[in-house]
């Protein structure tokens, strides 16, 4: 019996130099593709910003330069105890409601202390925010403040920016008839994780807004996607690495947004 002779198909050996060039070519192509995707995503965010009929902002460390609860704690002599908890809350290391309750139980501000704080503590707006809000409003877009901070502390901020009180969504402190601290209103959506999403859903449903862009610096701001159409991370006062890594667009200067809106 005559056997058939089989020839093994051998792949030509690629030289190390050719292999290296091929690897570099793939890496370069992948890098270009990644860069193109980032640019395309950024263009989408900018287009949504221009098209938005509603733009919402976090307040603490975004619209203003500080964390309101930290400043109130300092005023009440409890600053060091509260600052560490605020940092944990902003990084998402505990539920927002848990953190809020713990911090307020440390501070236990009286009604008179809150009034004195507002009277003696001038609002420190973040550079560029007034120009940005003026630009937004000149284009007939509505501006909202959605904050885990306190309504009473945010009213003076809104007044400086010509934002009507009904466009503020924030937590509300409760006091006994004696003026002593009695807790906070747990029915406010901003008192819990995911609450900012509920506010934005309500704005779309009840105010009939089609496109909402949210801007903020913290973990609770990242939660808004969806129902917000896009999210812009802000790091001009403090950079939170998780927000920087996950935001569709991350900025440190509000003038970047002004330029896009004026294009």
Q: Helices and strands, in N-to-C order?
A: HEHHHHHHEHEEEHEHEHEH
Radius of gyration: 25 Å
Give the mean pLDDT: 83
Strand order of the largest sheet: 3-2-1-6-7-8
Number of β-strand runs: 8
Intertermini distance: 84 Å
Number of helices: 12
% residues in beta strands: 5-15%
Characterize the overall form: globular
Task: Look at the helices and sheets and give the structural class.
Answer: alpha/beta
Largest sheet: 6 strands, parallel
Question: Describe it for me?
Answer:
With 263 residues, the chain is α/β, with parallel strands linked by helices. 51% of the residues lie in helices and 14% in strands. It has helices at 16-51, 59-63, 68-75, 79-90, 96-107, 111-120, 129-138, 151-160, 195-206, 219-222, 241-246, 255-262; strands at 54-57, 142-150, 168-171, 173-175, 181-184, 212-216, 230-234, 249-251. Strands 3-2-1-6-7-8 form a 6-stranded parallel β-sheet, with helices on both faces. A two-stranded antiparallel ribbon has the order 4-5. Strand 2, helix 8 and strand 3 (168-171) form a beta-alpha-beta unit. Helix 3 (68-75) packs antiparallel against helix 4, helix 4 packs antiparallel against helix 5 (96-107) and helix 7 (129-138) packs parallel to helix 12. The longest helix is centred in the N-terminal third of the chain and has 36 residues, at 16-51. It is globular.
